[in-house]
Amino acid sequence: MLDDSRTKEKSIIVEMIHDEVLIERAKQGDPEAFGELVSRHRAKAYGWARKMTQDTYMAEDIVQEALLQAFLKISTLIDAEKFMAWFHRIVQNQGHMKLRRGGPYAKEQLFSAFIPSNQEIDWSNIDHVLFKLNSSIEYRPTNNPVEQLIRKETLQGVAILLRCLTERERKIFECFFIEQLTSKEIAELFEMKVSNIYNVISRSRNKLQRERIKVELGDYVKDRKRKGLPSKRILDRSKLIKGVSL
Amino acid sequence: MTEKSQVLQCENFQGSWTSAGNAIFNTVKFNKDDLNMVRVMGYTGHAFRININAADVDVAGPTAYDWEDIFAKGLENLGFKSETIRTLDFVAPTPDELKRAISMIQKSIDQGVPAISWDLFVPEFGNIFGYDDEKKTLWAIDPQGDQELPYEKLGRGQVNELFVAIITEEIEVDRETMFKTALDMAINHAYHREHKDDVPPYENGLKGYDAWIEAFEKGEVSEFGNAYNIHVVHDARNFAAQFFRELKDEWQNYEKISTLCDEAVARYQEVTDHLRAITNLYPFPQGGEPNKPENAQFTIEQLKLAKQSEVEAVKVLERIREQI
């Protein structure tokens, strides 16, 4: 009982703290203050992102990304009134970055859009997720075999690419993308600072991105060859000026 | 290359501190042999540019502008339609963007023309003049040198952003239009701020000199950034003076225009001379001591004189514009 009332009291106190105070504390690097700001504004942010992407998981992803960005940039915030406007812009930017690659239905669409949402999946285990997705594609009634093949290949591709991460990087990567925990929760899991988590996530992503680029460039070159396009040409170097060497 | 020989190269008007000018010249010379570095700098507006961060005269100033727009306008004024691809600042390309960029580059090289690009080996403009699908390698050149560059490294250089511009078509432009457009671009740049955001506090054109002076008065000048800016702007105005020397001869049958060109030469030569007086104080890349009070005071005086001459120079441009 006593504990309950204490918790209640604590939550009332937290509610009374204005955004300004929280922002001030978050600026000092206080993850709790940031967590509180996030939970206050997360729903709204999610709404914006959802509207932009029409995809639940992609929206969550965008919000996550925006929140991490927000935490990293909070020290540049000037006043509290600007928080919402500014946060909205970050969500929008994240959304645009994703969407400008061809919209939610381009190749980079997250898995959530092509599996029935009621399937039981262990989201904390990416191999399980990929396995489930794979089988759901195989047994899925469809009249478009090409699309089915592309989806299957995409999933296999992701599985291959994930192998190039270290175990720790992969764990964090999985948490971030699959469980959609707040960055604070991930930090607690691994007892790391939020900024470290951000570094690991972005390193994992970069590694993944680099692998993906290699694979796609390989396909690109093969495709050119198949089309009979020239494979090499070098123009006259002696005509070119280098400019002032720096 | 020593700094002395770099200055000499610029004095001969064979190359510029403005890497955008070099990169454009490297591309257009494969199609037109009547263009030279001086005309490229003048007709694309690069001879007239100045862009200074009032906070600290940062090194990014000379290349902080809307590339797509300025390159497209400049190339069009030289007689070329162009196509560009650019990612947001500090954002590396996605695989799709990278493939699109490489295919643009290959299209251009297959037509015998190098592509323009950015941050190949250093964050400056340069050119891509070869490719090899087997090795997945590009041949590229920028102020750092010429080397091979793996496909996957394009847009993942020192600053992680992608920019490629290629020429797609040659178009007819008469010399009156070229001259008029060059003047309009220069006058616009002199009088109107090109930046949408207040921060960073970049000022271009005539106000660029005020921003520069402001930073010196505060004593918060970046050694590296200032040295780079001074060399770039000094070199650009040297090209501006030379541009009008060439146009004076070209328009000698039009007395008024020719006389006014002569006046423009004099004014831009004054700007160049005032700036030259301080280039020695601030060698690049070492930078010298811009925040030392006696250096600052002398620099402020020279910048004020340079600005006065440039105010007059722009007025001359407006008078020429009325004549064409």
Please give a structural write-up.
The complex is a heterodimer of chains A (246) and B (324). Chain A has 246 residues and is an all-alpha fold. Chain A has a domain of 93 residues: RNA polymerase sigma factor, region 2, helix turn helix motif (Rna Polymerase Sigma Factor, Chain: A, Orthogonal Bundle). The termini of chain A are far apart. Chain B has two domains: 195 residues, no CATH class; 87 residues, Cysteine proteinases (Cathepsin B, Chain A). Chain B is built from ten helices and eight strands. Chain B starts with a helix and ends with a helix. By secondary structure, chain B is an alpha+beta fold. In chain B, the strands form two sheets. In chain B, strands 2-7-3-4-5-6 form a six-stranded antiparallel beta sheet, with helices on both faces. In chain B, strands 1-8 form a two-stranded antiparallel sheet. The relative contact order of chain B is 0.15. Chains A and B meet through helix 10 and strand 1 of A and helix 1, helix 2, helix 5, strand 4 and strand 5 of B.
